Amino acid sequence: MKNSYILFTIFYLITSCTFKDTSEFKIGIISDCQYCDCDVKWNRFYKKSPLRLQNAVKKMNKDTLKYTIHLGDFIDKNSSSFDSILPIWNTLNSKTYHVLGNHDFEVEEDEKEKVLEKLKLKKRYYSFVENNWRFIVLDGNDLSFYAAANEVKKQQTDSLFLSLKEQDLPYLKKWNGGLSNIQLNWIKLELDKAVNENQKVGFYCHFPIFPIDEHNIWNRTQFLSIINQYSNVKFFFNGHNHAGAYAFKNNVHYLTFKGMVDTEKTSAFAKAKFTNDTIFIEGFERELSRKLAI
User: What does residue 146 show for φ and ψ, rounded to 5 degrees?
Assistant: First the structure.
């Protein structure tokens, strides 16, 4: 009897460790660090970004994070800006991911093809899986006047822009961009994978979908026509609108994170804790804390 009890205790301890609930996890989120060695413009204090990023990294490194993601516009302009700010980013203890922003391509023409290499990205849009989540990272510059990768994409950019011009859309600006049909088809494939593997889905992009203003991605309606068919899509996190914004549509949280570069004396960044039914946003400085039911 005693031996049986000992064996049961050992089995319990082993299985408790083996099957420990790992559904909860935390990540770090930063948007629009937007560094350059430039004078202040539009209340953006570009030269303060290195210290702000350094302080955010220190805060992130005090926690155990699955990963930290930057939501685009890591720099404001000039390829040399990457070389100044990346050493700070690389001191993060967690895995790291980047979303491509419009200003990330504000570099010399012959340097644009090197942007992905500098950010250690193999592809302009991609996905990755953590726990029971599929995170889909979009490239809102796929069709754009400043970062289209080839002549075909440039032609598609012209075609999309002209097709929307008569609609008088507030976000049809040349400093925004759109998703190519190839990327839209890829998104659907990713969503189908998530359904088959019983995964929740979160999107990261530089450009917002909601609320509607001058910052949105051009063909947002095409994107929405796809994701609205999937009940497992839970959030869409983005940057670009430095003031921040929030909307809840069709059971999806659309959250725009505030720009780190803005204001003279304050920063903005966040951590997010994922549980089975809630995402808790812990905002720092100007970023708001929120509770997002999923």
Answer: -125, -10
Indicate which CATH number applies to the domain containing 189: 3.60.21.10
Q: How far apart are CA 288 and CA 269, in angstroms?
A: 9
**Inter-axis angle of helices 220-227 and 181-196, nearest 10:** 20
Q: Which residue from 257, 206, 291 is spatially nearest to 30, judged by alpha carbons? A: 257
More confident residue, 218 or 149: 218
Domain for residue 150, yes or no?
yes
Please state whether the peptide bond connecting residue 211 to the residue before it is cis, i.e. omega within 30 degrees of 0. Answer: yes
CA R_g for the chain: 21
On whether the CB atoms of residues 217 and 175 are closer than 8 A, the answer is no
**Strand blocks (E) in the chain:** 25-30, 67-70, 95-98, 126-130, 133-137, 200-205, 233-238, 245-249, 252-256, 268-274, 278-285, 290-293
Q: Which of 114, 123, 68 is nearest to 91 (CA)?
A: 68
Q: Say what the pTM is.
A: 0.92
Please name the residue that has the structure tokens 């914004």.
245
- Please indicate, yes or no, if residue 126 is contained in any of the structural domains: yes
* Phi and psi torsions of 194, nearest 5°: -60, -40
* Token pair recorded at residue 63: 């926690």
Query: Residue 4: inside a domain, yes or no?
Result: no
Nearest residue to 273 via CA among 33, 96, 53, 23: 23
Report whether pLDDT(21) > 70: no
CA distance 90 to 213: 34
Residue 14 has pLDDT above 80, yes or no: no
Q: How far apart are CA 20 and CA 285, in angstroms?
A: 34
Predicted local distance difference test score (pLDDT) of residue 22: 56
Kindly state whether residue 9 falls inside one of the protein's structural domains: no
